[in-house]
Design a protein that fits this description.
With 71 residues, the protein is mainly α. Helix content is 76%, strand content 0%. It has one domain. Keywords: Membrane, Transmembrane, Transmembrane helix.
């Protein structure tokens, strides 16, 4: 903004910012539900409720690592 520019910075449209903000909500909600479910399994079954879901996620992490390495 310059001295002659009277347009407030909050009136400038940012289309990509709105799309990014809309995508963050469902991602955070999914992460929160996942963590809550894992915490519930620990509360119900103790230590096995902690490590069995982690063990079950190993194949998923292999796939994620392969996708990342492929570019």
């Amino acid at each position: 903004m310059t001295l002659t520019d009277t347009t407030p910075t909050h009136d400038v449209p940012h289309a990509h910012h709105d799309a990014d903000a809309a995508a963050v909500g469902p991602i955070l909600l999914s992460v929160a539900v996942f963590i809550a479910g894992w915490a519930t399994s620990v509360a119900l079954w103790g230590i096995p409720g902690f490590y069995i879901p982690a063990l079950a996620l190993v194949p998923l992490m292999w796939v994620v690592l392969l996708i990342i390495s492929r570019g």
